[in-house]
Amino acid sequence: MTIERQEGAMIADWTDEAICGFENSIVRVRHGLHQRPMFSDEGLARVLDLYPREALGAFTMGEDLEDWGSWRRGGVQGLTGDQLLGAVKDGRLWLNLRHANLHLPEFAELCAEIAEEKELRLGTRILNRDLGLLISSPRARVFFHLDVPLSSLWQVRGEKRIWFYPRREPYVSDAWIERCVLRTAEGQAPYRAEWDADATSFPMRPGDMTTWPQNMPHRVDNGPMLNVSLSMEYMTPRALRRARVLHANGVLRRSLGWSPTVQERPGPGLAAKLAFHAAHKLLNKSSTSPILPESFRVTAEGKRIAA
Q: Best label site of 67, 97, 122, 270, fewest CB within 10 Å?
């Protein structure tokens, strides 16, 4: 299957405000990906058949937003694409097909198309590209969390609501962001319901795309229908520098008990942190295995049983 590139821009309403806000604020624009047939039930089942099961992230969750420990990882080995799609429609699952651009040619082409437009419009390089496909159940949710790279969310099917929280204490600390960069913690973080009063929240419907500042905490609630979205995680040169500084800070905090700050502007402090990061990465191999163990398995009938 190949993607027929659409005539004109993928995003029709790039404005000066959206371009200037990139990496600095929450940006909302409209896209046309929801009109492509690859996201029909038949197209999704085919993608699920082709995507390697060992790479697929399958998660379930509780109802209490403050019980972020109820976010659990599961296994879906042995299921066909149709069976897996049915389990999502009838259950409480969140499927994350990360790096679909590395596993499926049509998503590699789509990822290149998205990156090409962003580079053209925003005047920066789009690096470390990870285009993921999210297929999730009615009423499923993603708890309060943050992403290490930059992210953009493209709503394709269904409706969801997203909440964004300030990137500062008490919502999130530098120490917690550092743990996520060092992969000693999942992105989920402690949450309090009263924080919603300080959040920016809006619905996302097919054709909506949003992107936000790096490491900004957020959470997502699905509406009462199957949801399909694309998640594009990536780095720019600026974002890559920030991630490397946070990595260096995390090592210094953990090993020396320091409380380092994040250097955003060029200077001796930034250069020293980048050099320290490079040396530490050279001498220490980081793990790429999932932090959460599998605690359940999805059966062909769509039931969740203990692993």
A: 67
CA 209 to chain centre: 13
Question: How many Å apart are CA 139 and CA 157, to the nearest integer?
Answer: 14
Coil, strand or helix: which one is 149?
Answer: coil
Reading the block at residue 269, the tokens are 């402090």
Q: Name the residue among 208, 243, 28 with its Cα closest to residue 128.
A: 243
pLDDT for residue 7: 47
* Distance (Å) of CA 292 to CA 72, 193, 221, 271, 299: 7, 24, 21, 34, 20
Asked if 205 and 234 touch (Cβ cutoff 8 Å), the reply is no
Task: Give me the average pLDDT of each 10-residue run along the chain (307 residues).
Answer: 50 90 96 93 97 95 91 94 96 97 97 95 96 98 96 98 97 94 81 97 98 97 98 97 94 86 82 84 71 89 86
Cα–Cα distance for residue pair 266/238, rounded to 1 Å: 11
Would the CA dihedral through 96, 99, 105, 111 be positive or negative?
positive
Question: Residue 291: how many CB atoms within 10 A of its CB?
Answer: 11
Q: Strands 127-136, 227-235: parallel, antiparallel or unpaired by DSSP?
A: antiparallel
143 close to 59: Cβ distance less than 8 angstroms: no
* pLDDT at residue 290 in the model: 64
Q: What is the DSSP letter of 6?
A: P
The CA distance from 260 to 279, in Å, is 18
For the whole model, what pTM was predicted?
0.92
Q: Residue 92: what pLDDT?
A: 95
Q: How would DSSP label each residue in 110-147?
A: HHHHHHHHHHHHH-S--EEEEEEEEEE-TT-EEEEE--
Dist. CA 176–CA 182, nearest whole Å? 10
Supply 236's token pair.
């720019």
